Amino acid sequence: MLVTVFNKNTSHYEKVGEGKALPHLRQPFSGIEQLHEVAPLFRDPLRVTGEELAHDIGASFVLAKNKTLQRLQDKSEEEASNGDTITDYVRGSIMIGHWKQVEALRKLIEPTEGGDAIEIAGNRLIYYVDNFAEPLKNGMRRVMQKYDIAANDNAGHHVGEIQARVAAMQDAEALTHRIYRMKRDFNRFAAKFSATDYRLAHRMALLAGYCGDLIKPIHDLEAMRHGYDVLLTIPYDRAMAPNPNNPILKILMREHDAAAQLQPILKMAHDPKMTAKTYIIG
User: Fold this and answer.
1) Which of 93, 95, 201, 273 gives 193 a disulfide partner, CB atoms 3.0 to 4.6 angstroms apart?
2) Is residue 186 classed exposed, middle or buried when 0-12, 13-18 and 19+ CB atoms within 10 A define those classes?
3) In total, how many domains does the chain have?
């Protein structure tokens, strides 16, 4: 997947592969403790940018809580970094209520290759990817933006994140995030016991796979249910209904809240009007 980044050397936007975006996004300082101490100074400047964008498209903006120091340490270990690659410590969400608001946001901030810098409330857009046009591999839809934020008290700069997300899909995303955490934990257990208990490690790896099998169908079917597939710009293979014998699905369906969230999504998968698997919006 290609993403758009701002190249400081050329002072223009360019499209690069996701793996080549990191050099443009590193924090100007390193160390988890320093990140935890300094980053909160940039919350208010990011909020101003988010609220301005949300106001211009008729949406709302929510500033997220800071990650805990423990979560920063865990994420630093996951990314094998000293904290300079963590760009979602200061973050917020533009809550989308209709697909036309995504179109309006595109008109405001979608950078063009070779184009000049885009600044919103004094903060420069340095990373942009539209996953309503091209969903992530797990089916998630969003417009991901990262900004070079300048603090008002001359504390320097910081990279912060704003996602444009669908308000009506929050519950589904919360469910898939829970499933993702289960997948992550099963994989950790599999790695932990791989040398001492192969059978247990194998079972943990299987359960992680079952978790992964649920995430894309939930995202795809929920996006379709709320009408956001009109924003697709690429041929896209929608995941079909998850396997009813998936043991993780069976567990979730025994929980009242999870079942209430899953039932309309699963019903959508069996709608005869939605049988086409590959499609593109012209």
Assistant:
1) 201
2) buried
3) 2
